[in-house]
Amino acid sequence: MSSLREGIPAAPGIVIGPARVLRWEVPRVPHGATVPAEQADAEIARFREALVYASDRIKALMVRTAEAIGEVEARIFEPQVLMLEDADLIDGTIRTIRENLLTAERAFEWRVLEWESALSHSSHPMVLDRLADLADVQTRVLRRLMGMPDPDLAARVGDGEKFILVARELTPSVTVQLDPRTVMGIATDLGTRTSHSAILARSLEIPCVVSVGNLSETVRDGDELILDGRTGRVVVGASEEDREAYRQRDYLIREWEQELVLLAHLPAVTRDGVRMALRSNIDLPGESDNARIQGAEGVGLYRTEFLVVGRATAPNEEEQFRAYKRVTESFPGQPVVIRTFDLGGDKFPAFLHIGREENPFLGWRAIRVCLDEPAIFRTQLRALIRAMPFGDLRIMLPLVNEISEVTRTRALIGEAIEELRAEGQPVPDAYKLGAMVETPAAALIAPELARHVDFFSIGTNDLVQYTLAVDRGNSRLASRYNPFHPAVVRLLAAICKAGNEAGIEVSVCGEVAATPLGAFLLIGMRASSLSVGPPALAEIKKVIRSVTYDDAAAGVAEALAAHSPEEVVSVLTARLSRVLDLGKFSASLGLSRVD
User: Fold this and answer.
1) Residue 75 clears pLDDT 80, i.e. is over it
2) 196 tagged catalytic
3) Is 121 known to be catalytic?
4) Where along the chain is the active site annotated (predicted)?
C-alpha cells in the first residue's frame, strides 16, 4: 500500500525510481579524550593545521563548483570559509584545550555544540541554513584531526544506477558532488527551501523535497518512490496507478513550464491594460543574476541579514557597500529595494550580545535595534548611500510602528549624506525611503505614515502572524495561519487604499504575493508591485497576464464581504479558475508551507 509524505518543495520536477538511503554523519569523537598539560600547545598547533587544511579544501571545492556550475553557486561556500576564520570559534576551541586539557577534536566538538545550541533556538531559514554549513565545516575539521580521509561521495553512491537519494540532511559539499545522471531526485528529513543544498540541487536541476520528517528512518534501499518537487510530495511504495497518474501530471507540467518560459520577458500587464511591477525577493547578492534571467523588473526585497547572521563581528562599511552596489548594478534603471538589518526575533549575531527575551518576536528587533545601535545603523546607511549613485537604490525600514522611527532615520540619513559629501564622496540629490507595513498598528496609521515615506512595502508574513496572533513557525498552528482570513484581507485593502490615496507606491513582498489567489487579490486592491522569489516569477506573471483588473476588483469586493477564510478562498477561486488551471501552480490555493 502506498503512503503520501508531505514536505517543502525545493527544486521542481517529477521523478519515479528506487530509493537509496545515505547515512552521512559527523564523525564521532571518543569521550574522555584528555592530554597532559605540556601537550596543550601541540594540540593547538594540530587544530590550527586542521583549520588551514579544511579551508584549503573548501576553497578548492569553490573553484571546482565555479567551473562546473557557476560563480554564483560557488559563493555558497563563502560562509564556511568565514566560519573557519571566526575568532569566536577558534579562540573558544583553543581556550577549551588549555582550560580543560582536551584533545583538539574534543575541544572543537564542544565549541561547535555551543554554536549549534545557540543557532538551533531559531526557526528562521537563514539561521537554520548555517547549521548545515556548520556540519560541513565540522566534518572536514574532525576528519582531518582524526586521521580520516576526505568525504568521497562517489564511493558511496556512484555505482551507475539511477535512484532517488534519501538522507536526513545534505550538506552543500555533499550536494555539489551529486551526479544528475544517476541521482534522479533528493528527499531529506530536514532542511529549508533556501538552504545552500537546495540552491545547489536547483542549479544541478535535480528535483528536491526537503523537511519530509523521518523519511530516511522509514524508507529502505530499493523502495519505489515518486517525488514531486513542485508540490513537495513523496509517495512511498507507489502503485502502478500512482505511477501512471504522476506520469500524466509530469507531461502536463512540462507543457506548462514551456509556456511559462516564453513569459519571462513579456510585460506584467493585465488583459485590460493595468501595468504591475513584478520584482524579486533575494537573500544573497549573487541571486540577482538569476532573478533578472527569470524576468524580474528589479528587486522588491533584498534582505541584508546574510551580512551579519553567524558573524562574531559587524560587517564594515566597505564590505556592505560592495554587496549593495553589486545588486544595484544588476538592475540598471530599475528599482532595488534594500531592507535595513532585520535583526532580533531569531536573528541575533554574536556581536550584539542580547539577553534572552520572553517574546523575542514582540521584543527588541528590526528598526528598534537599528535606532538603539546607531554605530551599526550609521555604517549601514553610509554604505547604502554610497551605493545609490550606481542605480535606483531605495531604503526600506522593517517593522515600522511609529512615525518617529521614520523621522529619526531621515535625520541619520541626512547626517550621513553630509559626512560623505564632506569626505568628497558622490552622494545623491534625493533618495527614497520606505516602510514595511507588517503590524496591525502600522496598517491602522497607514494614512498618516504615508505622508512620511516614499513607498509602502507590505510584509504579509509578519502581518498575518501579528494580526491573527499565530506563530508562523508553530506547526500545530499551521492551519490557523491563514492569509485569507477576513481580518487580514481588510487590513491589506486598507493599506493599499491609504498608499494609493497618498500617491505612493504600494508593493507586497510577502509569501501571499507568490500564490495565484494572493496575486489576484492584490491586483484587485491596486497594489503597485509584487515581489516574489525567483521560482515564482513566471507563475505570477502568468496570473497577471491572464486576468483583468476589473474582475480582480470585483473579487476583492466579494472577499471584503466574506465572513470566513474559506469563503474568501471560495470567491477568489471561483473567479480565477475561469481563466487559469490552478492545479498547475506550485502553490495552487493557499500558501506553501512556511519555512
Assistant:
1) no
2) yes
3) no
4) 196, 509
